[in-house]
C-alpha cells in the first residue's frame, strides 16, 4: 500500500484535525525540551534532524490520543507522541498531497522529527506554504491525522534611527547618528527567510541612485519571532555640507524599506517621512517628520 493511500484511509478511526493557530493556553517554547526520563529519541530520516530553535511555535493538539505536542522550527516539525501510543511511523504530507517526509517510531519513542524545509542558508529552497498533514500510521493503517498550517506573515514594524535611539548597538567606528535598525516580525505559523532589504529614496541614495540600494540580510525568521538588521545606508548624505549640495531643496522626502522574502506571497515594506534642512553651519540637517509615524505596508512581489 502506498504512503498516500495510507495517509487518506480514515475508515477505521475518525479523522481529527488540528489548526496550528495559537489559541489561549498555547505555549511559546524558549529552548525547552521534554523530560529525558520519560522521552526516548527517535531515529528519523536525518541524524541531525532536531532543528527546533528558541521562539519556535508550540501547539497542544486538542482531543488527540496520539499527538501530545507539535513544535514548528525553521526546517523541522518536532512531534511529541502521547504516552501509551503505539505507532509504526509518522508521515508528513505536503499541501499538494505528496509525501514530504516520514519518521519511524521505535518501541518506547515519544518524539519524532520530520523535515518540511530545506536548509535556507545553503540551498535557498525553503518550503511550500499551506496546510500540511501529520499522519500517524499503525499496522499499515492511518489511525489519526492533524493539520498544521505553515504560512509566514512578516512585517517591518519599525526603522529606528540611532540619532533618536542612542542606546542602539552599532559597529565600532561608525557614527551612530547615521545608522538605522530595521525591525522585522513574523506573526505567521511558518518560518520565512529574508534575502535582502531594498532601500528606496533614503537620504543616502537620494543623491546617488534613485533606483534604490540593496542591503543583503540573509536571515531566517521563525514563527512568532522578531529580528533586526542594522544598515548604514539610510540617513547618510553624500558630500554632506559640500558646496553645491542644498539639502533644503528636498524639503520632505518619504523613503521606503522593502524586505525581499523567500516563501511569501508578498514583500513587506515600511515608509517614513524625513525632513531636510541645514544647520547654523550650513551642513545638512535631517529629522523625522514630527507627528508622522512610520507606516508598515504590504509590498509587491
What does this 3D model show about the protein?
With 301 residues, the protein is mainly β. Helix content is 5%, strand content 42%. The protein contains three helices and 19 strands. The protein has helices at 3-8, 120-123, 203-206, and strands at residues 27-28, 40-41, 57-59, 67-72, 76-81, 89-93, 99-104, 109-115, 130-138, 141-150, 154-161, 180-186, 192-200, 213-221, 225-231, 252-262, 268-278, 284-288, 295-298. The strands form four sheets. Strands 1-3-4-5-8-2 form a six-stranded mixed β-sheet, with no helix packed on it. Strands 13, 14, 16, 17, 18 and 19 form a six-stranded antiparallel β-sheet that branches. Strand 4 and strand 5 (76-81) form a beta hairpin. It is elongated and about 80 Å long. The chain starts with a helix and ends with a strand.
Condensed summary:
With 301 residues, the chain is mostly beta strands.
Throw out a few tags for this protein.
single chain, 301 residues, mainly beta, 6-stranded mixed β-sheet, 6-stranded antiparallel β-sheet, 3 helices, 19 strands, elongated, disordered N terminus
Helix content: under 10%
Give the overall form: elongated
**Any idea what the radius of gyration is?**
24 Å
Determine the strand fraction and express it as a percent band: 35-45%
Our count of helices gives 3
Tell me the layout of helices and strands.
Elements: H1 3-8, E1 27-28, E2 40-41, E3 57-59, E4 67-72, E5 76-81, E6 89-93, E7 99-104, E8 109-115, H2 120-123, E9 130-138, E10 141-150, E11 154-161, E12 180-186, E13 192-200, H3 203-206, E14 213-221, E15 225-231, E16 252-262, E17 268-278, E18 284-288, E19 295-298
Parallel strand pairs: 2-8
Antiparallel strand pairs: 1-3, 3-4, 4-5, 5-8, 6-7, 6-9, 9-10, 11-12, 12-15, 13-14, 13-16, 16-17, 17-18, 17-19
